[in-house]
Amino acid sequence: KIMKFIIAALIPAMASAYAPNPVIGIAAKGMSLLKPIFKIEAELQAAALGAISKVDKETVIAEINDAKTKNKALIYTYGLSPFSSEAINILEGTECEFEQIELGPEWFLLGGKESVTRVALSEQLESGATSLPKIFIGGECIGGCSELSALSESGELESLLK
């Protein structure tokens, strides 16, 4: 009877865990091929819209740093991005509380502050990737959807979130 109780208790927990979508994972890795083009576009967009909106990049960086320190897990997203949706699903599957900051529906619909934020977020990674989502765990940027998916599949994500 004890074994049945243990199994019954574990099944709902296992069922609630989210298994990363392999198709989204492959697509996320493929997007890295476009990184140089996206970087140029992001910097031009941020320069133009940031100047028009008179956005102070140092203020944006301070806001990012503040959000990183206040949240165990933090994710910057686009509302219409399948990669952002996939990353949110993975995080929700962990049952860990996280803060989500949506910059806009998609990169081409960003305003001045959001465009500057996108570039500032890209500077959090050695690769300089401008794509979203950007995920922070314990104040460190772990990358985007493909990195989060890999951490989830390897089992490392659970230990990082503890």
Tell me what the structure shows.
The structure is a single chain. This protein is an alpha+beta fold and 162 residues long. The protein is 60% helix and 12% strand. It has 8 helices and 4 strands, in the order ααααβαβαββαα. It has helices at residues 2-16, 22-31, 35-53, 57-70, 82-94, 112-122, 145-154, 156-160; strands spanning 73-78, 99-104, 134-137, 140-143. Strands 2-1-3-4 form a 4-stranded mixed β-sheet, sandwiched between helices. α3 (35-53) crosses α6 and α5 (82-94) runs parallel beside α7. The radius of gyration is 18 Å and the shape is globular. Residues 1-16 have low confidence and may be disordered.
Topology:
Blueprint: H1 2-16, H2 22-31, H3 35-53, H4 57-70, E1 73-78, H5 82-94, E2 99-104, H6 112-122, E3 134-137, E4 140-143, H7 145-154, H8 156-160
Parallel strand pairs: 1-2
Antiparallel strand pairs: 1-3, 3-4
Helix pairs in contact: 3-6, 4-6, 5-7
